[in-house]
Write a structure and sequence with these properties.
The structure is a homodimer.
Chain A lengths: L2 E5 L8 H14 L4 E5 L5 H5 L11 H5 L10 E2 L5 E4 L8 H5 L8 H6 L8 E5 L6 H9 L2 E7 L3 H4 L1 H14 L5 E8 L6 H14 L12 H5 L7 H4 L4 H17 L3
Parallel strand pairs in A: 1-5, 1-6, 2-4, 2-5, 6-7
Antiparallel strand pairs in A: 3-4
The structure holds adenosine-5'-triphosphate (2 copies) and magnesium ion (MG) (2 copies).
Amino acid sequence: MGTVLAVANQKGGVGKTTTCVNLGACLAERGHRVLIVDIDPQGNATSGLGIDRRNLRQCVYDLLINGIEAGELLRETEVTDLWLLPSTIRLAGGEVELATLPRRETRLREGLKHLVPAFDWIFIDCPPSLGLLTLNALTFAELLLIPIQCEYYALEGLGQLLSTITMVRSSLNPHLELLGVLLTMFDPRTNLSQQVVDEVRKVFGDKVFRSIIPRNVRLSEAPSYGKPITLYEGSSKGAQAYRELAEEVLERTHDK
Amino acid sequence: MGTVLAVANQKGGVGKTTTCVNLGACLAERGHRVLIVDIDPQGNATSGLGIDRRNLRQCVYDLLINGIEAGELLRETEVTDLWLLPSTIRLAGGEVELATLPRRETRLREGLKHLVPAFDWIFIDCPPSLGLLTLNALTFAELLLIPIQCEYYALEGLGQLLSTITMVRSSLNPHLELLGVLLTMFDPRTNLSQQVVDEVRKVFGDKVFRSIIPRNVRLSEAPSYGKPITLYEGSSKGAQAYRELAEEVLERTHDK
Ligand SMILES: Nc1ncnc2c1ncn2[C@@H]1O[C@H](COP(=O)(O)OP(=O)(O)OP(=O)(O)O)[C@@H](O)[C@H]1O
Ligand SMILES: Nc1ncnc2c1ncn2[C@@H]1O[C@H](COP(=O)(O)OP(=O)(O)OP(=O)(O)O)[C@@H](O)[C@H]1O
Ligand SMILES: [Mg+2]
Ligand SMILES: [Mg+2]
């Protein structure tokens, strides 16, 4: 039975997409069947996995708004056992349209829950906001992973995110649990990075993953080739860090 | 008569707040009267200017939703002639509430237009989305500055942003003009940075500012002291780059 994991943080540019794509690829490398659901209208996870958004006639918008069968929307990627439910620019108007529909927070869950047994993992890449698209992800997910950039501003929005999780848990999805907090873009040359790590550990304790993702230029180059880091440069520090994270995620969930 | 400038890009983490705070401080340093309006619920511009959000009883939410007089909400900052209209976590629910109100796209303009003559510049720091808060900014502004990070994913969302601008111009604000595109977090050690610069110049031509903001750790440290770069480390490369940008912004607008 698959595990549904939302990767969310309304702060922008903290590594949500990079984590979805690369953690997904590392788990697929170990033989897990992984589906990545891109619900960000920017479609970065879609292009980061080499799918050309301009050629897509249908996407997650059609699942959320038109009730199209999810199975018809799934795409294979270059990585064995790694599948994608893509997003396109049509999703940009999706949040406003979704607001007018019945069961607006649960349409992602309704449209995908029958596919859960077909995968070991379903990752949902969220946009940088706490609107209806992210709410749909938090309502469907049983686990949440929060990437936090090792930067000062990244600490600011955590209160808002945690209160949204509490709200979701009390009204839409009582099963939602925080799997962990992931520190990203760590730069050992700056004091700021270490200060943020210390601060986040103080607030989240052992919810913080031991693995820290370093700032690594290979991670930011890989999307321009449409490949996850494991295919683009498997021996890089970025690939190793995400493999270590995959190991930890499996440790934390093995008894589930 | 003041110039209203929106700093927007729905891609997250590209340097919108950093540009508002530091370009604002550089213009104030030259004797211009500047107001920074923070309409991002995360309130990074508010804390980046040293204002403690927890102590604020009222903020931009009260202007947008409760029609409170803007003058009562303005705060002085540590920088002479640099003022702030702060945001707090209360704004997080603001977008949904705004959607139910009459004249929902023009409430920022209605609430602030009488203050325009009191400032030389009004900068609006937008959240990483194209929802009602950003629409309010684009409806009020006459000029738009788009920061673009020197990263691959940053190129992806431009089509969406440009089509939003076209929509705003045709229905809400025919005067909106693109002042320029600013390249940020340029890292000379990577090929990727230069590739993005070349690509953005190809698409935007001379709309791209000559000044490029380098990746500079002082810029990311300054917010943790609540100071813009001009007060935190005036001789840093980050401060120099934003001063050069200020010069160029004045060149581009002097005949206005
Ligand atoms: N560890 C890393 N080292 C270097 N660059 C990174 C790293 N992680 C992410 N990046 C780059 O930083 C930028 C932001 O990351 P990413 O797009 O994954 O964040 P995000 O949270 O998904 O952003 P958004 O809020 O816009 O959805 C991207 O250009 C990405 O390639
Ligand atoms: N030129 C730079 N050099 C180094 N760090 C930078 C630079 N510009 C911005 N930063 C840092 O990068 C992060 C993202 O920048 P910033 O928060 O200004 O982007 P944003 O577009 O406002 O993000 P959001 O989409 O969440 O509003 C911040 O932690 C900031 O301190
Ligand atoms: Mg993303
Ligand atoms: Mg910002």
